[in-house]
Amino acid sequence: MYGNIVLVNGRDNLGRGDKMNIIQVYQRFPSHESCLKHLEKIRWHGKPVCPYCKSDNSSPLPKELRHHCNTCNTSYSVTVGTIFHKTKIDLQKWFAAISLVLNAKKEISSRQLAVHIEVNKNTGWYLTMRIRRALAEQPGLLQRIVEDKEAYIGGKTN
Q1: Which of 15, 43, 96, 108 suits 123 as a labelling partner, its CA being 20 to 30 A distant?
Q2: pLDDT at 155
Q3: Can you give the pTM of this predicted structure?
């Protein structure tokens, strides 16, 4: 289970007619840090919560882009309990992959995804499978990662 992180499901355009393409993803999220800040904003609403003990008593570790829980004495990142946890793939590529998978009229192949985001075919397969599993296990999961007041990635309902 991937926790309660929410991304984009591409089922509803939330009143915006435009959908963000891969170039817009990279413009909106120019760095790994900007992706992490966005995840923190949508997952924690400004108040980090420890994924291990659910405490909100934490201290930021800005150099490491993590937080330290003062209750259970562990450090954690916003990616813990999500499809991004324990991956070495940059979050920009994850966001682009989510956009490509959800915006495809038919299923996108892992090789095609790999070509678009410039990773090898095995990594493309890994990303595709994790995104599809997240969609299958929690239908509303991919709902807010790259959708907010300023940005939207996703397709229209069928």
Answers
A1: 43
A2: 46
A3: 0.77
